[in-house]
Amino acid sequence: MLPSVVFSTILLTSVVWAQIPDQFTSGFNNNTISLVVTYGANKVTDGEKLSLNVVKSSPTLALGDSSSLNTNSRYIVIMIDPDAPSRANPTAANFLHWVKTDLRIRSSTATNITADNATAAFSYLSPAPVQGSGPHRYTFLLFDQPRRDGFVLQGLPANDLPASRVGFNVSAWMVVNGLAPAKAGTYFLAEFEG
Ligand SMILES: *[C@@H]1O[C@H](CO)[C@@H](O)[C@H](O)[C@H]1NC(C)=O
Ligand SMILES: *[C@@H]1O[C@H](CO)[C@@H](O)[C@H](O)[C@H]1NC(C)=O
Ligand SMILES: *[C@@H]1O[C@H](CO)[C@@H](O)[C@H](O)[C@H]1NC(C)=O
Ligand SMILES: *[C@@H]1O[C@H](CO)[C@@H](O)[C@H](O)[C@H]1NC(C)=O
Fold it and tell me: What is the pLDDT of residues 21-65, one digit of tens each?
């Protein structure tokens, strides 16, 4: 049995270690806007471990208690894996799992964002981390869409086959689309389950 002091040190280390990479969080303002990702009955809390069968289908998206909601705005959300094929050796980073554009706040709920009339999207591919690759940070980022109407997202992979989703450069994609740094985000951890 581990002495409890050792055990809590391990816990603390893993909490510090498991975070959204800094390069993506520079524009976050966690006090005014938060992205809420919900898989079925599972509302994702930052860094929680989810089982692969919970994340098989795409989640719903909402904005948390946000003081800067604008029903006229449109938003973009991407889901990436910066730990592909593993966090120790992320040679396939970022793996692009999902893109939604033209997200807007539903007037009936004020905070639930949806893309019923999306003009562009990149299909959801559920996490499938390879055996022995450890926990992956499946990361969601929320961007302001530069234009409300007629916005066509550029710089997506040519098709949504798994092999085309590797090496997605978020910085280059932001430049091509004129995007400001992500405003909010969240992530969960998942790993190979056998
Ligand atoms: C905001 O939240 C993200 C995700 O939990 C975290 O990585 C980041 O450090 C937070 N930023 C601030 C300024 O608290
Ligand atoms: C958002 O709205 C959709 C469609 O009505 C619903 O299925 C989903 O549960 C809602 N999500 C949240 C987080 O309220
Ligand atoms: C959906 O988008 C199309 C193309 O942008 C637009 O013409 C149409 O009015 C939209 N429909 C709704 C219900 O918002
Ligand atoms: C990603 O794109 C940025 C901006 O275009 C560039 O500076 C950087 O070198 C690229 N990173 C990789 C790994 O290609």
Answer: 989 999 987 667 889 999 999 999 999 999 999 999 999 998 876
For the CA of 62, the closest atom of ligand 2 is: 13
Q: Is the CB of 42 under 6 A from ligand 1?
A: no
pTM for the structure as a whole? 0.83
Strand, helix or coil for residue 12: helix
Q: d(Cα 53, Cα 76) in Å, to the nearest integer?
A: 25
Mapped onto helix, strand or coil, the DSSP state of residue 73 is coil
Say what percent of the chain tops pLDDT 70. Answer: 83
Which of 3.40.50.1010, 3.90.280.10, 3.20.20.30, 3.30.160.40 is the CATH number of 2-190?
Answer: 3.90.280.10
Q: Which atom of ligand 3 is nearest to the CA of 149?
A: 5
Under the banding of pLDDT at 50, 70 and 90, the label for residue 7 is: very low
* DSSP type of residue 25: H
Give buried/exposed letters for 59-74 (b at 16+ CB in 10 A, else e): bebbbeebeeeeeeeb
Parallel/antiparallel/unpaired status of strands 42-43 and 136-144: unpaired
Question: Residue 94 is which amino acid?
Answer: N
Residue nearest to atom 1 of ligand 3 (CA): 117
